[in-house]
Amino acid sequence: MFQKKREHPKIKSKLHPRNKHRERYDFNALKDSCPELSPFVIVNIYDDESIDFFNPEAVKMLNKSLLKYYYDIENWDIPLTYLCPPIPGRADYIHHIADLLSSNNNGKIPTGSKIKCLDIGVGANCVYPIIGNKEYGWSFTGSDIDITSIASAKKIIDLNPTLKGNVELRLQQNSQHIFNGIIQKDEYFDITICNPPFHSSLAKATIGTIRKLNQLKNKNNSKPILNFGGVNNELCCDGGEEKFVQNMILQSKQFANSCFWFSTLISKKSTLKSVYDALKNMEAMEVKTISMGQGNKTSRIVAWTFLNKEQKKNWIYSNWNDGNKSIK
Questions:
Q1: Per-residue pLDDT for 223 more than 50?
Q2: Considering the domain boundaries, does residue 58 fall inside one?
């Protein structure tokens, strides 16, 4: 029996204005684009079309349909248990980063393949390069410590002509290194992005998942259902998000002149103080914090640069506006 139909806002106002996912999912359009989604679309108790977001297969198929419909990705898949990220949130990061670049370019977003982005922890899903290349034409280098993730991302690139030549993958041989071994001599990136491991251990990741499921379903679950998946190195690292980002900041100093902006997602507000302290110790020239929101979740991007005003000006003149189009 249906309950009273929910009144949904026309747009998800917390998402970035250029995010293609601000409106509710058009399941008819998604099913037409990706017929494999059809068996997973259900009518919920509010008489709305939806999927079971606690079913990992349904979530993966929704992602596949979104990537096909909005980003022209005909062939996309990930290995069993690997992270299946929520597309709207990933798109938000890319759009906010585009605004960050535009803030140094008279309000114009630099576009085209000359804009180079380093995705630290590209994952098996390769989602950030997919979105960034489609939306702004940027070229990407994706790094990861997991050989299965690299192999999966390579397969996605090989099977989709729009990505070929625009996304390069590099295996990080030393799990203690973030930039060393990835950024080559005389190589430059306009932006680095990262979605760092959140938890300090797999046990804590499991507890967090159970807590979230109990809150959402109002039930007592003792077994986690990772509806968005994720293997150990995608979810956890020694010291969790805080230690990972501290290490990233420390190591970024070595490549101060190789990147215009470094950036990372920060999920925990409590992490910010140690992040700002680390950036102060490393003498970052400029630090920006960008708020993001999706549903009830709030996160933020922290970005930093070691370049002074004159270095920025020379970088932009040499790299951004030579043959590249820009958009407002």
A1: no
A2: no
